[in-house]
Amino acid sequence: MTQQIKADLHSHSTASDGVLSPDELLQIATDNQLDLFAITDHDTIAGYLSVREQAKAIGIRLIAGMELSTLWSGIGIHIVGLNFDPTHSAMTTLVQYQTNARIARTEKILQKLAKIGFELDLSTLQSSVGEGVIGRPHIAQLMVEKGYVKDTNQAFRKYLGAGKIGDVKNGWISLSDGVKAIRDSGGVAVIAHPNHYNLTRMKLLRLVDEFIGAGGQGIEVISGKQHRDITEKIAAIANDKGLYASIGSDFHRPLSYGVGVGELPPLPDNVTPIWDLFD
Ligand code: AMP
Ligand code: MN
Ligand code: MN
Ligand code: MN
Q1: What single string gives the DSSP state of each residue in 206-229?
Q2: d(CA 188, CA 171)
Q3: What is the mean pLDDT of residues 120-141?
């Protein structure tokens, strides 16, 4: 029997919209005896870089990671990049592009919300986020603090979620250019949480085909807490299309929806794990 690898290749730290610091995440991954771990913040590798040396010292295998926001057919699609060279110019250029896009987007979201009467100040937002990148969850939190909504769920449901006034996504890199940049920097690209986009089967298959055409190689067969039927469905697509299977908790915070770092069932036996591509 082959030895079971314990992996979690999708998680968020305070460098984006997670609540735990990169070292707290690393500590949990170590305590949970993960063989492979990745911190995949939204459009930044700062969290990963801050604990890379520490991971080596502890002896845990920390894979370079980032969750890239991309645009495909008018839909925001997240791509997890793994095992790239963080110093490669294709990666540093990509991060800079997305940082600029995120700043411009935040300003646009605040302008749109201002038009419907919400006074949300960019500098307040920036100081609450600190060194991390600003995302919609931070805007949602500020809306709660200002008393505009009762909780962050309501902020997403009414103002920030898919199709709402604050869902601005047209500045992100295209799916194909994003995948190419990940590949050029020596990494592998993975479709994140394929079940979260509310795509028809036909459209999901079209996404997969275009992703593969751009050089994409993986898909998250297990993403957080999901029904076994979904795991089986995505595993079948992975096998049909020749994609490698990834697994990740998409951890943002303890004790809320979802699962803890590394608290995941194993990948199904019939798929090829993404780590077969790591050296
Ligand atoms: P952004 O990176 O600014 O596009 O924000 C996307 C992040 O917002 C996701 O990664 C989730 O962490 C969070 N998010 C998305 N949809 C919701 C929702 N409906 N309720 C709460 N958080 C959400
Ligand atoms: Mn997030
Ligand atoms: Mn995502
Ligand atoms: Mn994520």
Answers
A1: HHHHHHHHTT--EEEEEESS--HH
A2: 23
A3: 93
* Residues 262 and 26 sit within 8 Å (Cβ to Cβ): no
Distance from Cα 2 to the centre of ligand 2, integer Å: 34
Ligand nearest to the CA of 105: 1
DSSP secondary structure, 70-81, as one string: EEETTEEEEEEE
232 pLDDT more than 80: yes
Tokens, residue 42: 């939204």
pLDDT at 128 (0 to 100): 87
pLDDT at 61: 98
Q: Is the pLDDT of residue 195 over 80?
A: yes
- 142-166, pLDDT tens digit by residue? 999 999 999 999 999 999 999 999 9
Find out whether the beta carbon of 43 lies less than 6 Å from any atom of ligand 1: no
Q: Using a 6 Å cutoff on CB, does residue 152 contact ligand 1?
A: yes
Backbone region of residue 214 per phi and psi (left: phi > 0; alpha: psi in -120 to 50; beta: other values)? alpha
CA distance between the termini of the chain: 22
Q: Read off the pLDDT of each residue in 20-48 and give the average, rounded to a whole number.
A: 97
Give all strands (DSSP E) within the chain, no chain letters: 7-8, 36-38, 61-63, 65-72, 75-82, 173-174, 188-191, 218-223, 244-248
250: Cβ contacts below 8 Å, ≥ 6 apart: 10, 11, 12, 192, 193, 223, 224, 258
Task: Give the 3-state secondary structure of residue 162.
Answer: coil
Confidence at residue 242, expressed as pLDDT on a 0 to 100 scale: 98
Per the listing, tokens 């590949």 go with: 183
